[in-house]
Design goal:
The chain has 434 residues and is mostly helical.
Length: 434
C-alpha cells in the first residue's frame, strides 16, 4: 500500500523484515520440535537459535538466481550457520512456513484492527449520548420523512460497529490456524507433533486437515469481513457527505487550520476525508472478490493465489486500519449545526406530520383509505403552494368536524416523534450514563 494510506504501526507489521522474522520463528520452532522427537541434536538447535540471521538485501540477492523466495530465505539463513544448517527446513515444504507465518501476521493485524474498532465504537457511543435529544429530519429516498435525532444516527452506527466487532472476532478465529503437514498434507516427511508444537508457539491452532496450503476459504472470509467493515465506514461517510451539502449543512467534517478545499475556489470546505473513505472502501470490496477467486486451486495446490495475496492481505488490513482512524477523527471532531437541522425541518411546511393526521382521523371514525386520500390531497396542495400544511388542514370542513384545533395542534408536536428515543438507547446499553 502507498504511504499515503499507511499508518506506521501497520507498515511495520507487513514489512519484509517482519515477514522473514516470522518465517524464522516457524523454522526454529520446528527444529525445537524435532529435538523433542529425537531427530535433531539439542546442541544443533541451540546453535541455530543463537546464530540464525538474515538480511532482506541478501535474500533479495539470492532470489535473483533462485526465483524462489523461500529457498532464497533458507540459503541466506544457512549462511549464518555452520554444520547445523542441515537441520534448517527439515521435513518442511515452503508453504508450511509461509502459510503459518502469514496466519501469525494476520492475527496481529486483526488484533490491531480490533483495537481500532473499539476506539471507533467508543467515539460513536460518546456522540450518540451527546446528541441523543438533538432533533433533525429523517429522510427516506433523500426526501423528508419524519423527525429523528442526530443521536439516533450515531446509535445506529454504534450498533453496526458492534456487529462488525463480532464479525472480526469470527474472522480472527478462522484465520488463526497453521499447517506443517508437508507437500500434500499427508505428514509423509514430518510428524504431526511438529505442527502442533509450532502452532502452539505461534499462538495458532493446527488446521485439522490441509493440502500443501491452508484452504483459502479462510482467507476469503477474512477479507470479506474487512470489506463489510469498510462498507459500514462508507455508509457513515456517505451520510456525512450528504448532510454537509451547502443546501443543508447540518453536519460538517472537521476543516483544520490551513487546510485548502480547492486550488481554484478559496471558499471550498469539501468533505474530502469522508470521500476518501468511500473511495477506499471500493478497493476493499475488490480485494474481497479477489479473495473469493483464490479459493479454487488445482488439486493439492497451485500458486495462482499467492501473487494476489501478496497484495490484497497487506493492503486490505492496512487500508482498513487507515480508514478507521480517519473515521474516528471525523466523527470525534464533527461540526454539528442544530439550527440548520431545525431550518431543514421547516422546509417541508409541516408535511412530515401527515401520518399523524391520518391516524388521528382514523381514530375519529374515518375509513383509512378515505383519510389517506384527503390527507394526501391537502399535502400536495401545501407542497405545490408552499403553504403551511396545518393551515390548509384547518381550512377543511371535514377536519374541523372531526377534531378540535387543539387536537390538530397535537399532531404537529415534535416531541411526540422522540417519545421512544430513550427506549432505543436502553436496548443498546447507551443510557448507563444517565
Amino acid at each position: 500500500m502507498i504511504d499515503r494510506y499507511t499508518r506506521p504501526e501497520m507498515a511495520k507489521l507487513w514489512s519484509p523484515e517482519n515477514k522473514f522474522q516470522k518465517w524464522l520463528e516457524v523454522e526454529l520452532n520446528a527444529t525445537d520440535a524435532w529435538v523433542k522427537l529425537g531427530h535433531v541434536p539439542e546442541e544443533a538447535a541451540k546453535l541455530m537459535r543463537e546464530n540464525a540471521k538474515f538480511t532482506v538485501e541478501r535474500i533479495d540477492e539470492i532470489e535473483q538466481s533462485t526465483h524462489h523466495d523461500v529457498v532464497a530465505f533458507t540459503r541466506c539463513v544457512a549462511e549464518s550457520l555452520g554444520d547445523e544448517s542441515k537441520y534448517l527446513h527439515f521435513g518442511l515444504t515452503s508453504t508450511d512456513v509461509v502459510d503459518t507465518a502469514l496466519s501469525a501476521i494476520l492475527v496481529e493485524a486483526t488484533d490491531m484492527l480490533g483495537h481500532d474498532l473499539e476506539d471507533l465504537t467508543q467515539t460513536l457511543r460518546d456522540q450518540a449520548i451527546r446528541y441523543k435529544d438533538v432533533p433533525m429530519m429523517g429522510r427516506t429516498h433523500g426526501v423528508h420523512a419524519e423527525p429523528i435525532t442526530l443521536g439516533l444516527k450515531f446509535a445506529l452506527w454504534y450498533a453496526d460497529m458492534g456487529r462488525n466487532m463480532k464479525r472480526l472476532a469470527q474472522a480472527r478465529e478462522m484465520i488463526a490456524v497453521g499447517k506443517l503437514s508437508g507437500a500434500v498434507g499427508t505428514y509423509a516427511n514430518i510428524d504431526p507433533f511438529v505442527e502442533q508444537y509450532v502452532c502452539k508457539k505461534m499462538g495458532l491452532a493446527p488446521a485439522p486437515i490441509s493440502t500443501q496450503v491452508l484452504q483459502r476459504d479462510r482467507h476469503a472470509q477474512y477479507v470479506s469481513t474487512l470489506a463489510v467493515i469498510g462498507g459500514t465506514l462508507e455508509k457513515i461517510a456517505t451520510e456525512v457527505r450528504a448532510l454537509q451539502k451547502t443546501e443543508m449543512r447540518e453536519v460538517e467534517e472537521p476543516f483544520s487550520k490551513g487546510q485548502k478545499g480547492s486550488s481554484a475556489m478559496p471558499h471550498k470546505r469539501n468533505p474530502v476525508k469522508s470521500e476518501q473513505i468511500c473511495g477506499l472502501s471500493r478497493l476493499l470490496r475488490g480485494y474481497a472478490l479477489t479473495s473469493l477467486e483464490d479459493i479454487a486451486l488445482w488439486h493439492e495446490r497451485d500458486i495462482s493465489h499467492s501473487s494476489a495475496e501478496r497484495v490484497i492481505l497487506a493492503d486490505a488490513t492496512t487500508l482498513l486500519d487507515y480508514m478507521i482512524h480517519q473515521m474516528i477523527y471525523i466523527l470525534g471532531n464533527l461540526h454539528v449545526y442544530p439550527e440548520n437541522m431545525m431550518r431543514s425541518m421547516s422546509m417541508s411546511h409541516g408535511l412530515v406530520e401527515a401520518q399523524r393526521v391520518l391516524l388521528r382521523l382514523v381514530e375519529k371514525g374515518m375509513l383509512r383509505e378515505d383519510a389517506y386520500d384527503m390527507v394526501q390531497r391537502m399535502a400536495m396542495e401545501s407542497w405545490a403552494n408552499s403553504r403551511p400544511y396545518r393551515e390548509i388542514l384547518w381550512e377543511d370542513p371535514k377536519v374541523r368536524e372531526l377534531m378540535t384545533e387543539a387536537e390538530l395542534d397535537s399532531c404537529f408536536e415534535l416531541k411526540t416523534h422522540l417519545t421512544h428515543v430513550d427506549t432505543i438507547f436502553r436496548r443498546l446499553g447507551l443510557l448507563e450514563a444517565y
